[in-house]
Amino acid sequence: MASPPAWERVEELVALLVDLYGRGLARITQIAEDQGAAGQDLIARLAADEFVASLLVLHGLHPVAVEERIQGALEKVRPYLGSHAGGVEFLGVDGEGVVHLRLEGSCDGCPSSLVTVKLAIERAIHEAAPEVTRVEVENLVAATPAPRLAQIQPSPGNGSGGAKWAAVDGVSRLSPGEMTAVEVEGSRVVVCRVDGTLYAYRNACSSCGSDLAAAGLEGQLLTCPACGQRYDLRLAGRSLESRDLHLEPLPLLTNEGQVKIAVAS
């Protein structure tokens, strides 16, 4: 192990290298800005790249304010959250980098809907604004008699709190009214497109346990091919025949044509 004086020199060298890269990025962005509209387009393309964006954030050079990036992230997941929790209101970011949100309404159907909302919001915000330290959501309660405040804490690894996000090929091309059965990290999943929104659920009927690959999909209603149980995909997979039955929704995010689904790890 290096002696204290040597380690101090290593830390100083690393700091100088980081500063050098930061100054270089600052010059690049300044030169681009001086090019007018073409330069602004280049900066926007660089900021849209996940790796480059992380470097811009590290050096405080990201061209889009953190509040605007968070709003953009919420807009991406808002159609999906709408089936589970209603609207989501952005309250701001405090001085410690904590994002404050408020959900308008509550998860309709089941505790798994609560987990779905938490994972989708956390993932979207941390991808758009990696400098955020924590996400706190008010009114994130399941449809139970015991409402509570749920806080979303960033976790090690993929940040999904016990779930693993995996890219799923092909499902982005589904047309409205189409569905497909896929396997995600060893879990059987059905993905359906209702109008312009994709929904992911565990591939198992909550009533009889049957495979849903051959289920009928009409509008937002999915019908089990074995027992005829009907589920409303827009309402967290709640059964029309029994409020005690529901499919298990899974978090799904779409970014630039790539679809990711989170399953328990």
Task: Describe the structure concisely for a colleague.
With 265 residues, this protein is an alpha+beta fold.
Furnish the topology, listing elements before pairings.
Layout: H1 4-33, H2 37-48, H3 50-58, H4 66-81, E1 87-93, E2 98-104, H5 111-128, E3 134-138, E4 150-152, E5 163-168, E6 179-184, E7 187-194, E8 197-202, E9 216-218, E10 221-223, E11 230-232, E12 238-239, E13 249-250, E14 252-255, E15 258-264
Parallel strand pairs: 2-3
Antiparallel strand pairs: 1-2, 3-4, 5-15, 6-7, 7-8, 8-13, 9-10, 10-11, 11-12, 14-15
Helix pairs in contact: 1-2, 4-5
Q: Which geometry do the CA atoms define? A: elongated
Give the domain tally. Answer: 3
- Strand fraction band? 25-35%
Helix count? 5
Helix content percent band: 25-40%
Major β-sheet profile: 4 strands, mixed
Number of strands: 15
Assigned CATH class of the largest domain? Mainly Beta
Measured between the Cα atoms of the first and last residue, the distance is: 37 Å
Structural class from helices and strands?
alpha+beta
The sequence of SSEs as H and E is: HHHHEEHEEEEEEEEEEEEE
Overview of this protein structure:
A hairpin with a 2-residue loop joins strand 14 and strand 15 (258-264). The two termini are 37 Å apart. A four-stranded mixed sheet has the order 1-2-3-4, with helices on one face. The chain has 265 residues and is of the alpha+beta class. The protein has three domains: 4-58, no CATH class; 66-161, GMP Synthetase, Chain A, domain 3; 166-264, 3-layer Sandwich (Rieske Iron-sulfur Protein). The longest helix has 30 residues, at 4-33. Mean pLDDT is 76; it is low at 108-112 and 142-161. It is built from five helices and 15 strands.
